[in-house]
Every structure is written in C-alpha cells, then in structure tokens.
Amino acid sequence: MRYDRPELGERLAADYVLGLMPIRARRRFERAMAGNATLAAWVAAWSDRLTPLDTMTADETPPPQVWRAIERRVGPALSEPMPARGRGGALAFWRGIATAAIAACAALVLYIAIYPEPLPKIVAVLADTTGLPGWVAFAGRSGKVGVSAIGTVGKDAGHSFQLWGIGGGAPKPLGLLPADPDRPLWVRAAMLPAAGAALAVSLEPPGGSPTGQPTGPVIFQGKVLKAPP
Amino acid sequence: MRNPANVKTAARLPAIGNWRRGVRSHMKAHVFAHTLADRVSNLTSTLPDLMRRSASGDKSAFAGLYQATSAKLFGVALRICGRREVAEEVLQEAFVAIWGRAKDYDPVRGSVMTWLVTIVRHCAIDQLRHQQSRPEGHSAPEEVLSSFVASGRTDISAELRSLQRCLDELDPQPRQAVLLAYLYGLTRDEIAARLKVPVGTVKSSLWRSLERLQRCLGT
C-alpha cells in the first residue's frame, strides 16, 4: 500500500490512533511507520489531539499480582513497586483466554524500528495426503502449544476441524481448530503425544465428534517433531 | 540465572525455586538499602528519565515507571476491556512489551504517557477482538464526556476543554463514532450497529468529521 499518498497516510494515521485498524493492517502500518517519519508524525499529531480523552478515565490501582507477573517475565528488579502476596486463580484462568492477544502485544510496535521476531519452534506440520500443509503446531509460552491454520484451509460452516493426538491407544481429542490463521488453538503441551507420534485433523460435525472418537475422515496429519516444551 | 550445580534433573523447577529464594534472602539487607535509594530516586525522576533508564536495562527504573503510570494505564485498560481480570492481563502484556521496546521510545515523537497509553490501548483492543463476547455496560461516551467536563473539576486540561468544544461542533453521529472508537475500541461494524446506521455511513462520515476536528483544534 502506498502510505506516502498524503491523504491516505493521514487517514490511516487517524485510523491507527482511533484503534480502527484490524490487527494485520496495524502491523503493516507499524512497519511502514518505522521507516517513515511523516507517517510517525501524523500518528503523533493524532495521538496528541485525542489523548486528552484518556485524562477523563479514572485511575485504578492494579492488584499487586500484576507487577509480580511482569517481574517474573522480565526478571526481578531490586526494588518492588508495592508489596505483593499470592496470585489470583482468576489470573491464571484468564491467561489462557488472553493468550491470543499475547502475540499481538509482544509484536506491538510504535514509533519504532522493527526487530525481526524469532521464529517460533515448530512442533509439527500437518499436511494432507498430497503433502500440502494445512496446519502448523508451534511452541508458545507457558507450556502451551499453538495449532494454527496457515491459510490453505477454507472455512466450512457445515463441519468442524477436530485435532487428535495419536499416540499409543485410542486417539485423544485435543480441541476444535478455528480455520482463521489469526486464532490458533492452544493446547497444553502435556496433552500432546510424545515426539515421533502423530497429530491428526478430522472432519467432524459442527461442534466436534459426538462420540469422543474421530467419526469423519482424517484430512491432515503430521508427526510430532520434537518434544513440546 | 540458573546455577547448574543446584539444578537436579529430577526436580528441576523446585531446585531453581529454592536457589532463587536462597539468593533473595541472602541479599535481603543489600536489597533493602538499594530499595530505599531507588525509591527516593524514582520518586524524584521524571517519566522521560525513567523511560530512558528502563531502555538501558535499569529494572528499578522500570519498576518506578510502573509505579508512576500503572494506575492511569490500568484505568484505560479497564475502560476498554470492561473486566478486571482481562484488564490485568492486558496491563501485564503491555508492560512486558514496554520493557522489550523501551529503547524504541523517541521523545521527539510524543510524550511518554501518550506512548504508553497507545501501547495499552492497542493491547486492550487486540484482546477485545479475540474475545467472543463484548463487554457490557459501556456508558454513553458523550454523557461521560459532558458530565466530566461539566463536573467543575479544576484539573481538566485546556487540551480536553478545546477537544470537547471541537467535538461539540461535529454532527452527533460522527462525534459518537469517534468517541466509541477511541474510548471503547469499537470497530466500524460495531459502531454502525450501536448507532443503528449502515457501516458505509460510518466510514464516510468519520473521516470528514476528523478533518473538521483537526481544523477546529488547529494543531
């Protein structure tokens, strides 16, 4: 996209500041902004115009476990901003739900030079019978493995894609796979079969297999390449 | 971080935990002296200073930055997410991102607070877009704005007053669209649904209104 057309660039800068951009468009825009001082200046100008609205929002003190969690992830500081004890169960619960946003936030860039992000460790590539890959499993954070469509699988309203672990014994259901590449299925790494065993995707009725075992054809499969984290 | 001598394969995690706790209690007196000094210095530091020191890897400055800004930023995250648990996650993710990107902050391009707010807003918006359900109970943004400005508070900035004056000059629908997007992170489709107008109308009127807003603010 030609960000250097003044009107378009300025519109996009306003969209960016208002928060109207879809995530992918925003990433593209941020990459463009890193090398384009004019775009960055437009963004700064729109931020300055609208950020007074944030002053209306009442301050809220976050609970101490938030800083504890941040500190765990960036390494301990010598001083702590506040005393903290324990850790909320709700926080652990929501960690799973917010996982999808983690990648988005970690990749977040503003006024910045882009740093290439390290490639995720691939745990398995699931291909169809012709060898065309449809899904990839990769190591995420917190002992999770993400399984993501890579854009070759079409949406199918009449069916669900269900993921199975094929180790010894009966196939183990691991969850329903969204066809949207932006929304990986997150599976606890401990649920996955060992390296050398397989992951498979079967076509099931909407909502998944009614029996707890695959009822439809296996359309993608792949070996677990390495022990998940 | 890890001291291999203390890590037993059979009990890797507990061993690390014990080792870290051991080091911490050993360093306690030392840490306490540092803590006091750091707290005093963080209290007297400006945000750009804390930001600059965070960028060079100074974790106590980063802790100071959190201390100085987390209440404002948590308020912003809560405004968009609507649920405390989600806002806590967002704040955590945002600060991890801030730590990683601190060296990218460029004071020439805006204030520290604006930079931080942008990061938190985008984290919150990403989170919102991944959620199945939308938070409920968002107050009507215009009422929030007018009651805030009319509240007689003395700490309302001149910038907010002129922004409100210029927003007042817009037509009601695009004004609400601007506020719904900025304050609550609604998409164009959601704005259209909330205002009960076609999404094309939102698209076309929004930019015209932003241009008017820009002319009115004269910035």
Quick description:
The complex is a heterodimer of chains A (229) and B (219). Chain A is of the alpha+beta class. Chain A is built from 5 helices and 8 strands.
What would you say this structure looks like, in words?
The complex is a heterodimer of chains A (about 230) and B (about 220). By secondary structure, chain A is of the alpha+beta class. Chain A is built from 5 helices and 8 strands. In chain A, strands 1-2-3-6 form a 4-stranded antiparallel sheet, with no helix packed on it. Helix content of chain A is about 30%, strand content about 20%. Residues about 80-105 and about 105-120 of chain A have low confidence and may be disordered. In chain A, a hairpin with a 4-residue loop joins β2 and β3 (about 145-150). Chain A has helices spanning about 5-20, 25-35, 35-50, 65-75, 90-105; strands at about 120-125, 135-140, 145-150, 160-165, 170-175, 185-190, 200-205, 220-225. In chain A, α1 (about 5-20) packs across α3 (about 35-50). Chain B is mainly α. Helix content of chain B is about 75%, strand content about 0%. Chain B is built from 11 helices and no strands. Chain B has helices at about 10-25, 30-45, 45-55, 60-80, 85-100, 110-130, 140-150, 160-170, 170-185, 190-195, 200-215. In chain B, α2 (about 30-45) packs across α4, α4 crosses α6 (about 110-130) and α5 packs across α6 (about 110-130). The longest helix of chain B is centred in the first third of the chain and has 23 residues, at about 60-80. Chain B starts with 11 loop residues before the first helix and ends with a helix. Mean pLDDT of chain B is about 75; it is low at about 1-35. The chains are: A alpha+beta (about 230), B mainly alpha (about 220).
